[in-house]
Amino acid sequence: MATLTTNYKLKKPAETDFVNVQDLNDNADIIDTTLKAKADLTGGKVPAAQLPDGLGILPRLDVVCASGATVKVVNGSTTLSKTGTGTVSFDIPNYGTWTVTVTQGSMNKSITVEVDAVKIYTLWASLSEISWDQIAAASKAGLAEAMMSVGDEKDIVVDSETLTLVILGFNHDELTSGGKAGITFGLKNLMTNTQPMNLSETSVGGFTGSWLYGWLQNTLFPKLPPDLQAVIKTVNKRTSAGNGVSTIETNAMKLFLFAENEVFGTTYYSAPGEGEQYPYFATQEKRIKYLSNGSGSASDWWERSPNALGGHDAYGFGYVYRDGTLTVNNYGISDPAGVCFGFCV
Q: Final residue of a domain: which of 90, 110, 125?
């Protein structure tokens, strides 16, 4: 006596049955119709009705989070939950808006994602909780802007001093190797110690010829956390030549200061062509910076822009005044000012 298969009810004759050609044809029709339905896409996507019924391929949510965190993904009455182990994965049984909530201690953050295709969606709770390797991977894949926001923060420790980094913009700076760097970071505030631009009153050689440039590359960079050093990209930064000359030079560097136009979106004393304003610096509030990572007093801080107006101030470099406004005078470059460095990943 014939039996039926579990999923598609195909007829399975018993060993003692005679072969019935109609049964074979019926089975072939069922297989043909089912495979055709599985192959058809709606707007390039597998139809939602086919997701849970044996398709074998489901959308997946990967949530990057700290170990030990509680991760829940919710859509209507469907709730899936796991404990974070660095990355946790959920097979998603239906399309729609899913809310991902990560809870760890007092931290609770939710992210929503529209699942509308059979693919992998990678999310995380916050920039502060993921590694520099993971940040670099997202940047390389072109996913950073979709997963992070301008103003997101991440702390590092340099010489026992905690420094808060902030995302200034995405796809802003040119990689020396070609293309765009996915993320540009800068200090939210300033380091504790101020530094001179040069040890004497000169801007000959521009920024890359300055004492402070050498300090950034040779003294500060080796003190950054090794995992951060490993993912910092070399980018091309444009700066005038110094000594009152407006000629723009392009130099490859890993750590840099910001140009007048990158901070204010305008040029007053600097030469045109040193870069475009970062979204983070669009408001005056974001240009006010405090020493000691925010716990000290508001301070002037260096730009990499030499004065390009000439005259008796031709030796000078620009700086951002302590109230976040554009300066019209040059700073005595052997006098110390705050250091706000940047880099790209």
A: 125
What does the pLDDT look like over 101-114, one tens digit per residue?
888 776 677 888 89
Same domain for 112 and 213, yes or no, is no
Write down the pTM of the prediction: 0.70
Residue 233 lies in a domain: yes
Q: What's the rounded Cα separation, in Å, for the pair 274 and 327?
A: 17
Question: Is residue 98 in a domain?
Answer: yes
As to burial, measured by CB atoms within 10 angstroms (0-12 exposed, 13-18 middle, 19+ buried), residue 209 is middle
Number of H helices, E strands in the chain: 7, 18
Sign of CA dihedral 281, 299, 236, 146: negative
Domain that includes residue 34, residue range: 3-39
Residue of 31, 60, 36 whose CA lies nearest to 47? 36
Number of domains in the chain: 3
Q: Which of 93, 125, 157 is the last residue of a domain?
A: 125
pLDDT digits (tens, 9 = 90+) for 161-189: 999 999 999 999 999 999 999 999 999 99
